[in-house]
Amino acid sequence: MANHLVIVANRLPVDRVVGPDGAPGWRRSPGGLVSAIEPVMRSGDGVWVGWPGGTEQDLAPFEVDGLSLVPMSMTDEEIEGHYEGFSNGTLWPIYHDVVAKPEFHREWWDSYVEVNRRFAEQAAELAAEHAMVWVHDYQLQLVPQMLRELRPDLRIGFYLHIPFPPAELFQQLPWRREILEGLLGADLLGFQLPGGATNFVRLVRQRVGHKTHRNTISLPDGREVRAAAFPISIDAAGFEELARDDEVVQRSKAIREALGNPRKVFLGIDRLDYTKGIHARLRAFSELIAEGHFSVEDAVFVQVAVPSRERVEQYRILRDDIDRLVGRINGDLGRIGRPAISYLHSSYPREEMAALYRTADVMAVTPFRDGMNLVAKEYVACRVEEDGALVLSEFAGAAAELRQAWLVNPYDINGMKQAMLDAYHADSKDLRRRMRAMRRTIAQHDVEAWATRFMTELEDS
Ligand code: F6P
Prior knowledge:
This protein has 16 helices and 18 strands. It has helices spanning 32-43, 76-95, 106-126, 143-150, 167-170, 176-183, 194-208, 236-244, 246-258, 278-290, 313-333, 350-359, 374-382, 413-425, 428-444, 447-460; strands spanning 3-11, 14-18, 24-28, 46-51, 62-64, 67-71, 127-136, 155-159, 188-191, 211-213, 216-218, 224-229, 264-271, 299-306, 341-345, 362-365, 389-393, 406-408.
């Protein structure tokens, strides 16, 4: 008890590591969210509740870099039902335009309810009187209401990091009403884009029957819930500093050399997820080579695919598809020591990412649907020389802010080819004009500004 800020998220902001002496330990994960909230957590007796990954049971609260963390354990069945099942086999595809087919299983739902209840109970136990509790993302949409029932004194905020779908898709969910009611336990609901907030309010009106006025919902008990857009961002200054770091600069030169000093380096960095449009993007690039617009000496595509949700079938199928496609492209178009695609199935620390961003002349971020896409923003923050081209999907949340990118429809392969080609040939004046404007946007709207705005509005709600 006695915490004035409780962050509740499916994951803890730490990764397991093995120290040089072989002893297991924790390291803070690179996400911007934790750094944004960190000052408030320290000054306001904050605590973070989340799953550390794995199936270890009965974990005790611990501290990493002065952050108080309360680990929630999950059993194998809960990982299967709550995390891989309902969160990532049902909700994830529905919330991303049904890019893959969602599956509906009643046991998955039961497990989702059970895990949400445990998170809510834990938060209820930790929060001081009238504390602020900030719940994150689609894995925990029932927590706000469950928590309100346990602790009506709390101020509860909820932020959805992924898109909130249009009513036409959301209403496929057999548990649509329960989810809407779960979310309505919050005082303030944050979405990436205004469209998400509008979709939510419309659904509440249609499916739950509450009165709404613009983005405010009036509940029968007199409580008001507000839904609004809070586009998330990155630690822009931190990335910029990293990009200027001498070791990162040297590493970037070494990467370019290792790639054979091509005229242009294209880059994609994504979690290996079917929403990211990796397959279509690599096809577009390979067709440009096959058609002779440039050669494998002129350009290489570095694709980093970060392993993700590897036990979920759709993700396994995707990995095989990408492996096959990369093999075929390199087999058909590559020369000795010159693959068309340099494919890396791995995750990298922030320093290596910054070096890759520095190296990339063209960054391709082409998801079919994405809540925001922070990679696009990180790329912009790292382009300290004000050059480099961003090819960005219209269907990433980031497109609402990064208007000077080469915006593409990721379903339109010819359109993507044209944008990649334009980016390849763009002159330095055009690149500078676009990058400068995007850098200004990112510098003004960083993750700290995002977190402060959300928490201030929650405080005032
Ligand atoms: O932002 C979407 C999100 O699902 C987060 O909630 C999550 O922590 C991250 O992407 C990575 O996914 P996962 O936790 O399933 O590895």
